[in-house]
Amino acid sequence: MTAGQALLRPEATCRSCGHQGLEVFLSLGNMPLPDAFVHPDDLSQPDARYPLDVAFCSRCCLVQLVGDVPAERMFVENYLYFSSYSDQLLQHSRQHALELIEQRGLGSRSLVVEVASNDGYLLRNFAEQGIPAVGVDPAPGPAAAAREIGIETIQEFFGRDLASRLVSERGHSDVVIANNVMAHVPDLNDFVGGMAALVAKDGVITVENPYVRRLIDENQFDTIYHEHVCYYSCTSVAHLVEQHGLHLNDVRAFPGLHGGTLRWYLSKSPGRSARLEELLREEHNCGLNTIDYYIEFGGRIEQLRHELLNLLHGLQRDGHKVAAYGAAAKGTVMLNYVGIGADLLEFVVDRNVHKHGRFVPGVRVPIAGPERLLIDRPNYTLLLAWNFAKEIVRQQQDYLRRGGRFVIPIPKPTVLEHEPAYD
Ligand SMILES: [Zn+2]
Predict the structure, then answer these.
(1) CA of 106 to the centre of ligand 1 (A)
(2) Distance from residue 11's CA to the centre of ligand 1 (Å)
């Protein structure tokens, strides 16, 4: 498709409201599964690739991918993401738990259920205070890690079935938490219907997800990948949850988390906060409810691709060695979409030891530990994990002192001379 227009897909049905006829405004091409880091033994096998087309629903304003990848492929195989690897996320989660405990008066007779509980990084804060907490996560590695620290974890996908079993075994839940998961769910209505069935009448559901407005306004196209099937605004969340007898009542913004995260508060009784009303008005005023807003974005991303490629080719022509930091899904998308391969990059470093020795899918760049920045001293390091820019730059003072420089790819490719502006 060409930049500057949207492509109507008459057969594509909205995952939220069922409207037929979604409008595709960005196509990232045939992309390998971004978390499928390649083992050296599998280098002779081609990567499985799936199209990555992003569309807008003109009825409920939900931004979503067209087409599905089998869920089992994405979450179980090669699932190497452990939440506890980010200090910032640990701190954010602890704060969230402590606030809920205080505001909801949680105690030993309460029940907290977290969907996509990963390695128990959030629930441990409840368990620590004797508050019953149950995790749900289909990924075997993180679920086992959670059990090891004493967090009861059900290794399944969440939906209406599991919710009704939980209710009959444990009763309704005072708090249901779903962080960074609602974007991943192919059957959205089964998922939200499950949360609605699980939460107590006077309970609360908190849902955190990256904010689609930040994605668009800051050109964060690399957060678009197969695992993220939906991209939410307050407008689209309100529409979605109302179909299940829930009300979107409040919102909190965390601009520094995952490139801009919102936390939505849902309950069974209505009562919108002034903060939420304000944000809904802003969404209307900035045009986020219209296709034009997204078409412009598609054009900007095409331009960014050319700029970044020119910058890296220029550095290489000047004899500089270039590496990258952050072997995560968004790094895979950035490298594959822009076309940055082993011809331009020496290696990608990442703190997660489970990824060392593997290769970035598609472009097949090797992954190593961060110490390689000091050993090999690449002149420039492309910061693929820009959402952790501050944390990484702080940890890499030695690299900077020895003359190394970071390149930030978005919102516009820039060589970083000082502390990053993200916070
Ligand atoms: Zn819709």
Answers:
(1) 36
(2) 13
- A 10 A CB-CB count for 376 gives 13
Tell me the pLDDT tens digit for each residue of 138-185: 888 889 999 999 999 999 999 999 999 999 999 999 999 999 899 988
CA distance 391 to 419: 10
Task: End-to-end CA distance of the chain: give it in Å, rounded.
Answer: 35
**How far apart are the CA of 48 and the centre of ligand 1, in A?**
29
pTM: 0.88
Q: What is the pLDDT of residues 109-135, one digit of tens each?
A: 999 999 999 999 999 999 999 999 999
Q: Does the structural domain 83-269 have CATH classification 3.40.50.150?
A: yes
222 C-alpha to ligand 1 centroid (Å): 23
Give distance in angstroms: CA of 71 to centre of ligand 1: 21
CA dihedral 394, 395, 397, 398 (to 10 degrees): 180
Superfamily in which the 306-416 domain is placed by CATH: NAD(P)-binding Rossmann-like Domain (3.40.50.720)
